[in-house]
Amino acid sequence: MAICSCPVCAQDTAAIAKVIQLVRQVQDRIITVPTSYYILYTYANEHTPATLLDSMRGTVEIDGTNYHSILDSTETIHNSKYNIVLFKEDKVMYLASSTPGEVGTNPMQQMLSFLDSAHNSTCSFSRNKSQVKVLISFPSGGT
Description:
The protein is of the alpha+beta class. Helices cover about 20% and strands about 45% of the residues.
């Protein structure tokens, strides 16, 4: 299953609730089935939303409690022993021991927390056979 986040322009609390439900289903599934998804963040000025200013692409691969993610030039690796974050542009690596139940390092839990706080945001999604595309737009000034 793939999930892609991009901007849209209308408020729909019911759609955000539906996406939260979908993310929870994926989160339940990854306990037993390896899962990956793609991310695309696009940025635009609120006055000219059709003109993109910047974008970031990435992938997340999850297998149980182990995961690997790449977002732009930042790479994160997590397993039962370590949390590793590589900032390629800065040539910096952070290494920390892993602790059970870390919410901050679980990308699915991070996404749920992010969506839970996405008040006044727009959300829509579409499906095809094995892919779900999620579209989210955030108001100016934050969530």
